[in-house]
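Notebook entry, cofactor series.
This is the third protein in the set we're modelling with a bound small molecule. For this one the ligand is nicotinamide-adenine-dinucleotide. I'm keeping the input format identical across the series so the outputs can be compared line by line later. Sequence and SMILES below, as received.
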Amino acid sequence: MKLCVVGTGYVGLVGAAVFADWGNEVVGVDIDEEKIKKIQSGEMPIYEPGLAEIVLDNIDQGRLTFTTSLAKGMKDADLVFICVGTPQDDKTGAANLSAVLGVAAEIGGNLDGYKVVVTKSTVPVGTNERVKQIVRENAPKGAHFDVASNPEFLREGSSVEDMNVTDRVVIGAESEKAFEKVKSLYDHLNAVIVETDLRSAEMIKYASNSFLATKISFINEMAQICERAGADVSEVAYGMGLDKRVGKYFLRAGIGYGGSCFPKDVAALYKTSTDKAYDFKLLRSVMEVNENQRHYFMDKVTDYFGMNLDGKTIACLGLAFKSNTDDIRESVSIKIVQALRGLGAKIKAYDPKAMENAQGVLGDFGIEYGEGIYEVMKDADGLCLLTEWSQFGELDLERVKQEMKGKVIFDGRNLLDKEAVEKAGFTYFAIGKRTNGGEYGRFEGGSAILKDAS
Ligand SMILES: NC(=O)c1ccc[n+]([C@@H]2O[C@H](COP(=O)([O-])OP(=O)(O)OC[C@H]3O[C@@H](n4cnc5c(N)ncnc54)[C@H](O)[C@@H]3O)[C@@H](O)[C@H]2O)c1
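Returned structure with ligand:
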C-alpha cells in the first residue's frame, strides 16, 4: 500500500519506518524543515532503540522517503495518517487540537482521489467527526474519502518493537471500505483487531492511559502506607502483580509519572468528563497523588539536609522521563533537579541519552553535566536516582563511596538493594520502604493527628 504519515515525531517517524519495513511505500511529512533534512541525511532527530537501523534500511530500499510538502506526500496514498502532537492546553487541561485540525484542512485541500484519513494522534472523543467535517469543507466538490481512528499504544523506549508485537490494534471507522483498508495494513500481526465506532476508538486510548496512570498512583499511595506501616512496597507490588487479574506492570512506586502522554491524557480525559457534566473523581485523585509524589521525594532530601541546600552538591542520575528514551517532556526528574537547584544546591547531572534535551530546558546555571555515572558523584554530598535506567541499578557501591563526599542516597525509583546499600555504609532513602534514613517514629500517632485535623 501507499501511505502518507504526517508528523515525524516519536509516533510518526517510528510508524513511517515500521510501515515501510512491512513492505509499504511510505512518505513521512513534517513542517519542521530541519527535522526532515536531518532524517534525509541519515541522522535521527530522536533516540529510539532500533529506529536508525530500520529508517536507513528502508530509505536504502527506496520504500521510505521524507518531505515537507503534504501535497507531495499524499499523492496517490491509500491511507493518510495524522501523527502530529496534541499537547495539553495549560489553562483548561484539554488537548490542543490546532495541529490535528490544521492538518485535516490541508489534507482536504490536497485530496486527489479516495483516501482514508486515519488519526493516530491521541484525540478527545468526537475529534474524528470534526476532522471529517474539516476535510470535507476543504476538499474539492464530490471528493471521496473516509476517516478512521487508529490510536497508537507504543511506548517510548521500545516503540519499534511495540509496533511489531502489539496486543491489539484499535480501528474506529464508519464504512466497511475504511475498515478493510486500515485492517489490511495490520493483518499480518498476531494481534486482536478491535473494530469499533470512531468515538469508542478515541475513548479506548484515553481509558487505557488513564487506567495505567491510575495503577501508578495507586502503588504510589500504597508506598505511603507501606512506609508508615513497615511493609516494603516492592514486595507488595510483586505479590500483587503475580495475580493475573491485577497484572505486574505499572506497579512500580517512584516519584510519579511524567512524559508526553500520561499527564496530558489524564488531564484531557478529566476535561472531557467535566465537559459532559461529570466529575471523574478517581482521575482527579490520580492527578493529585501524582503531583504529591515528587514533593514526598523532596521532603526526604530536605528532612536530611534542611531547606537550605546552599553549598551542597547533589549528584543526579537520570533526566529523561523514563529509561531508554531521550524524551524529557514532563519529566519528573527534571522537575526535581529544578527544585533542588531552587533550594541552592549545585547539581551534577548525568543521563545516558537525554543530556542535550535537558540542557536545552535547564540551561547551565548551577548545573554541571557529567560524562558518566561516577564522574558526577565526585565530591557530591548526596546522590539522587531519578530515572530508572537499568545501569543505575547496578552501581558499584564501593566506587560510589570513594567518589562521594557525603554518604547518602535518595533512590526515587527503588533501583537499589536496601540491605546492600545500608551494609555499604550509606544512609538510604527509598520509596515505600523503611530504611536506615527514614524517621520511623514520625509516622506514629497519625490517627490522632487526622482526628485533630477533622
Ligand atoms: N510519544 C508517545 O509515546 C506516544 C504514544 C502514543 C500516542 N502518542 C500520541 O501521538 C501524537 C504525536 O505524539 P509524538 O510524541 O509523536 O509528538 P511529537 O511532538 O514528537 O511529534 C509531532 C510532530 O508533528 C510535526 N507537526 C506539527 N504540525 C505539523 C503539520 N501541520 N504538518 C506536519 N507535521 C507537523 C512536528 O513538527 C513534530 O515533528 C500525540 O497525540 C500523542 O499523544 C504519543
